[in-house]
Automatic annotation (TrEMBL):
Active site per the UniProt annotation: 235, 399, 417
GO function term, MF aspect, one: calcium-dependent cysteine-type endopeptidase activity
Swiss-Prot/TrEMBL keywords: Hydrolase, Protease, Thiol protease
Organism: Magnetospirillum fulvum MGU-K5
Family the entry assigns: Belongs to the peptidase C2 family.
Domain of life (superkingdom): Bacteria
Pfam families: He_PIG, Peptidase_C2
Domain Calpain catalytic: residue ranges: 215-420
Record-level GO BP terms: proteolysis
Protein's UniProt name: Peptidase
Gene Ontology CC: membrane
Gene3D superfamilies hit by this protein: Immunoglobulins
Length: 884
């Protein structure tokens, strides 16, 4: 979901084993000022079929020597124009994107406006699509889009072009020039822009398209910081991309083919097969910013925006991409209504996805440790809200994020939020949480298996010895690397320090061949050779090159040492509390092998029996992981190391398992003051309690005597927050907070909430009066004029320019009955400004003021000779006598 959208909608369990979508709804979308000025049209500059195609390049599966003979099937084409173009195109045995675009645009130019595409032309196109691997070769990208262009695809049902979808249909005999050009635009030029209308959760915005000139990637290639989620609810898409960009950036790079004409091929996987679409660099913009990814910053590259756009196109093919109910066709609405990260991981990597409901146990810990070590990509699907001590939001319920690290010692998980960074943000972009915080609320991890697809080093290349003046020609053995999926490998070589090879030595990336002439004085060096497949995944080896003086000196063969592995650093005895989590990694030098051979490890109890079910030994990094079962009476553990020859060595260490300790109060909560009638809240400090076992804790609150809290006081256990509005007359409360860990052990603290009166409050103001001079005056304060939980006394004053006065005159005030009485003096000809003050027994006061104006018996209102302003009265006014 976006940084402005926080809700979600479940999907049907029948559709996916993971039955929740992430980022499906919005709460507080950005103001209309950001998106409200969108044009009703695209306003976009797009590449048309009339564009001159020049210097367009694309990757190919293999290179073929120029001058190959024309395949028979090309000679059998019947349309003269298509045949001539294809004879030219296949001359070098390779069909490129640019050449295929020329073929179809030439066809469009020659197409008659009457009758449309002929039967011969349609038949020839099918023959071209069917025979690309018969005597010629083309990239998988060109093959895929050509096939969908010629043989049809669900995406061909409509053409949107940044406006309203209109019927299109598959290519057929009789297809018009317009239909042909729209199909070319869809598959070759990326002109079928998504609709400018975007609807999410009942809210609709408009976008305006503009051609971008920004580069595909930054200088360092794709990085996670390129992702800054904008208005779309596509956290489920961007969080996996951030994980992949961080762990496997080459895979992101391999998704794109730059066609050289401001269009790009973008690859996904569906059903394990490559699925390509073409998009152009015409992007939805809002002012100087992109409407979606990078809406708040200027990252300076567009790969994420292109993937968002391409993911829309994939959905038009009817492919399931994580949100079964929200396919709005060629519209950003389709990908902006939430989805599941596992579908994205599978679509981007083509690998199998595993799910782990988060628990603070050995299975989750081992999954994290192994996935991060293997550089598999991890997305966290969270149903938890959390905040740090500064009030910044960390975990967001209904949101997908990336897991970038895990500290097995502290149990802390490092998380990256795809919202990225923006000015004034109230959330953390990167933060750590305890694994226990994610457990128990249904949070789950989606982990891909990219490492299983990467090339493997099968046979380490032996060190080489060359002589000064020697002409070098050395090719890597064919079995050095292998690719599990059979993908073509390309090679690169540098020095071990990352610098380029010496100037006298060249390396052929296709054949893996080193060649050159060793100059006099050349120094020995080591080279890192990297094999990379078409997914951008790689494996490496290091080769040592020695240089001898003058004559060839055969390498010295040192006979291998003999003997079994030895214990070099005995593991110390351990103390693991019952109920406590265990993450203990053995020292790297615990065992050494005299031959320097690799070793494998096994852990059992000292008697050879299996470890208890609660304890797991990870052979990946020689770590013990688990949670000590209650009642465990100590262990004696044996670890055995075995080398490649089958020789072994063992060590034994003891584990003491004392009983668990209840949570303790680390920071006592001070007494709090709570004012009656005022809504208040406060939260316990994060370190109020600590658990010696490191267990997660739950919290409850009662009165100190065990009774429930007063009805006006609420305790929210998830945030450890008290809130409420103390009514008038509330008594002080002695509060007891209890923290209980996963073992059921608990600790408590007690503190006081002291309630204080708010003081008198003017509840009903007294209306101004009009009285007749010479007549009896009797009136009282408004009913319930003042309220207070404490007793109050009352006094009345006349407001004068020199200050309030309390003097004798014709009007008197009875503080008991709170009434005024008297005979209006015959000479009253102005306005009296009166103030009544209520004071409670705590000394707090409030006042109410009002006026008395006068009229004669004929109804004429009398005015004084002085003007009254604000709270001032004329010095000629009558005095007010106060009875107290």
């Amino acid at each position: 979901m976006s940084s402005s959208q926080r809700k979600l909608t479940p999907i049907r369990a029948a559709d996916r084993s993971v039955v929740r979508l992430f980022g499906a709804e919005d709460e507080d979308a950005p103001s209309a000022g950001i998106f409200g000025a969108a044009s009703t049209g695209s306003g976009a500059t797009v590449v048309t079929t009339a564009t001159v195609i020049s210097t367009i390049t694309t990757t190919v599966k293999a290179s073929v020597t120029a001058g190959v003979s024309t395949p028979t099937w090309v000679g059998s084409l019947t349309d003269a124009g298509l045949k001539a173009d294809m004879i030219s195109v296949v001359a070098d045995g390779v069909v490129t994107y640019g050449e295929m675009l020329t073929v179809v645009t030439d066809l469009s130019s020659s197409l008659s406006t009457v009758g449309g595409l002929s039967a011969n032309q349609f038949s020839d196109l099918k023959a071209i699509a069917a025979n690309w691997n018969n005597g010629v070769t083309m990239s998988s990208y060109v093959d895929d889009i050509l096939n969908r262009f010629v043989n049809g695809d669900a995406a061909n049902a409509y053409y949107t072009g940044g406006g309203t979808a209109t019927a299109l249909g598959n290519l057929r005999v009789g297809s018009t020039v317009t239909q042909l050009n729209q199909l070319i635009g869809k598959w070759f030029l990326g002109n079928d822009l998504p609709s400018t209308t975007v609807t999410m959760n009942g809210s609709t915005i408009k976008v305006t398209y503009k051609a971008s000139t920004a580069p595909l990637f930054g200088v360092g290639g794709p990085v996670a910081s390129d992702i800054n989620q904008g208005y779309l609810n596509d956290c489920y898409l961007l969080a996996p991309l951030a994980s992949i960009a961080r762990s496997n950036p080459g895979l992101i790079s391999s998704m794109f083919v730059d066609n050289g004409n401001n269009t790009y091929g973008v690859r996904f996987f569906t059903g394990g097969k490559e699925d390509w679409v073409t998009v152009n660099a015409v992007l939805p913009m809002t002012g100087a910013h992109y409407s979606f990814n990078d809406a708040y910053n200027n990252v300076g590259n567009i790969w994420v925006n292109l993937i968002e756009k391409a993911y829309v196109q994939i959905n038009t093919q009817g492919v399931y991409t994580g949100n079964y109910y929200a396919n709005f066709g060629n519209s950003f609405s389709t990908i902006g209504s939430g989805g599941t990260p596992d579908s994205v991981l599978q679509a981007v990597t083509g690998s199998k996805i595993s799910h782990y409901v988060v628990a603070n146990n050995a299975e989750t810990i081992n999954a994290l440790v192994n996935a991060l070590a293997a550089k598999n990509d991890i997305s966290l699907c969270s149903w938890t809200n959390s905040y740090d001590s500064a009030g910044y939001q960390c975990l967001v319920a209904g949101h997908a994020m990336s897991v970038t690290g895990f500290d097995a010692t502290t149990g802390k998980v490092t998380i990256l939020n795809p919202w990225g960074t923006k000015t004034g943000q109230t959330y953390r972009t990167t933060f750590e949480v305890n694994l226990s915080q994610l457990a128990g609320t249904g949070d789950y991890l989606a982990i891909d298996s990219v490492a299983a697809l990467a090339p493997k080093l099968v046979s380490q290349t032996a060190s080489q010895s060359w002589t000064e003046g020697q002409t070098v020609s050395f090719t890597l053995p064919t079995n050095t690397f292998s690719d599990p999926s059979g993908r073509v490998l390309s090679y690169s070589a540098t020095q071990a320090n990352g610098q380029a090879l010496p100037s006298w030595l060249s390396f052929d990336a296709k054949t893996g061949k080193f060649s050159g002439i060793v100059p006099t004085g050349a120094a020995a060096f080591s080279s890192i050779v990297t094999a990379t497949d078409t997914l951008g995944l790689s494996a490496s080896e290091t080769i040592r090159f020695a240089v001898a003086k003058g004559v060839t000196v055969p390498p010295v063969v040192v006979p291998p040492a003999s003997g079994a592995p030895v214990v070099s650093a005995q593991t110390a005895n351990q103390v693991w509390n019952q109920g406590g989590s265990v993450v203990f990694t053995m020292a790297a030098n615990t065992f050494t092998d005299p031959q320097g051979a690799a070793m494998t490890y096994k852990a059992t109890l000292a008697d050879g029996s299996a470890l208890p079910s609660w304890l797991y030994f990870s052979t990946f990094n020689n770590s013990f992981i688990g949670r000590v079962a209650m009642g465990t009476a100590g262990l004696s553990i044996k670890v055995t190391a075995k080398d490649a020859t089958g020789l072994t060595a063992s060590e034994t260490f003891s584990v003491t398992t004392p009983p668990p300790v209840a949570p303790i109060v680390s920071s006592q909560t001070a007494s709090r003051s709570w004012t009656e009638g005022v809504a208040s809240s406060f939260s316990l400090a994060a370190n109020t309690f600590t658990d010696p076992q490191g267990s997660a804790m739950t919290y409850t609150a009662t009165q100190a005597n065990g009774q429930a809290l007063p009805s006006w006081l609420t305790f929210t256990a998830a945030t450890k927050t008290f809130s409420g509005l103390a009514p008038t007359g509330s008594a002080d409360v002695s509060v007891k907070v209890t923290a209980t860990d996963l073992l059921g052990l608990s600790g408590s603290e007690t503190f006081s909430l002291v309630t204080a009166a708010a003081g008198p409050v003017v509840a009903s103001r007294t209306a101004s009066q009009t009285q007749v001079v010479g007549s009896a005056v009797t009136f009282g304060l408004a009913a319930g004029a003042f309220t207070d939980s404490l007793p109050m006394t009352y006094a009345a004053y006349q407001i004068k320019s020199a200050g309030d006065i309390d003097a004798t005159s014709w009007l008197r005030f009875d503080p008991t009955t709170r009434t005024f009485s008297g005979i209006a003096a015959a000479n009253e000809n102005g306005t009296l400004h009166l103030k009544v003050v209520a004071t409670d027994t705590s000394g707090k006061a409030a006042n109410d003021s009002f006026d008395i104006s006068f009229k004669n018996s004929g109804g004429l209102t009398l005015m004084s000779t002085a003007t009254l302003t604000g709270s001032q009265s004329s010095s000629a006014s009558s005095l007010l006598a106060i009875a107290r």
